[in-house]
């Protein structure tokens, strides 16, 4: 039976990210992550919820390797926003690199407009 660490490691590999990037994005020290690997400690409840949300995986699967009914289950969704923070909860067909770039550029543009709008309202 897999440990919690092994299931988290599987999610990291499926996402195609490094363990270091995973730790940075979720604010986990590499020392704590190493302790999980050695079985010295396990992630706390809040961190498990954050990890489940990050990977769109069920807590039951991360903690037990199964769903509530006891069948092996893990939710699957396409990983959107390509390792960037602010992952959206959506599914769809795979996007090309050009399409991904366009979406990220549009998000940046939208953030910029929002900031400018807020700056304008504070100077009035």
From TrEMBL:
MF-aspect GO terms: DNA binding
Pfam name, any one: HTH_19
InterPro entries referenced in this protein's UniProt entry, alphabetically: Cro/C1-type_HTH (IPR001387), Lambda_DNA-bd_dom_sf (IPR010982)
Domain HTH cro/C1-type: 8-62
Protein name: XRE family transcriptional regulator
CDD domains: HTH_XRE
SMART domains: HTH_XRE
Organism encoding this protein: Paenibacillus terrae (strain HPL-003)
Highest taxon of source: Bacteria
């Amino acid at each position: 039976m897999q440990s919690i660490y092994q299931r988290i490691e599987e999610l990291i590999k499926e996402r195609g990210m490094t363990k270091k990037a995973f730790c940075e994005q979720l604010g986990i020290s590499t020392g704590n992550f190493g302790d999980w690997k050695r079985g010295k400690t396990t992630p706390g409840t809040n961190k498990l919820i954050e990890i489940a949300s990050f990977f769109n995986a069920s807590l039951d699967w991360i903690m037990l390797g199964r769903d509530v009914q006891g069948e092996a289950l893990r939710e699957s969704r396409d990983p959107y926003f390509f390792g960037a923070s602010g992952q959206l909860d959506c599914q769809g067909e795979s996007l090309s690199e050009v399409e991904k770039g366009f979406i990220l550029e549009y998000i940046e543009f939208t953030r910029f407009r929002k900031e400018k709008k807020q700056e304008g309202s504070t100077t009035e």
